[in-house]
Amino acid sequence: MSQRMQQGQPMIVMSEDSQRVKDKDAQDYNISAARAVAESVKSTLGPKGMDKMLVDSMGSVTITNDGVTILQEMDIDNPTAEMIIEVAETQEDEAGDGTTTAVSIAGELLKNAEDLIEQDIHPTAIIKGFHMASEQAREEINDIATEVDTEDEDLLRSVAETSMTGKGTEVNKEHLAELIVEAIRQVTVEDDEGNNVVDLEFLNIETQTGHSTGESDLLEGGIVDKDPVHDNMPTEAQDADILLLNEPIEVEETDIDTEVSVTDPDQLQQFLDREEKQLQEKVEQIADLGADVVLCQKGIDDLAQHYLAKEGILAVRRAKKSDLEFLSEVVNAAIVSDLGSATAADLGHGDLTRDDEDELFYVEGEDAHGVTLLLRGSTDHVVDELERGVNDALDVVAQTVSDGRVLAGGGAIEVELASRLRDYADSVSGREQLAVEAFADSLELVPRVLAENAGLDSIDTLVDLRAAHDEGDVEAGLNVFTGDIEDTNETGVVEPAHAKEQAVTSAAEAANLVLKIDDIISAGDLSTDKGDDEGGAPGAGGMGGMGGGMGGMM
Question: Is pLDDT of 546 > 50?
Answer without folding.
Answer: no
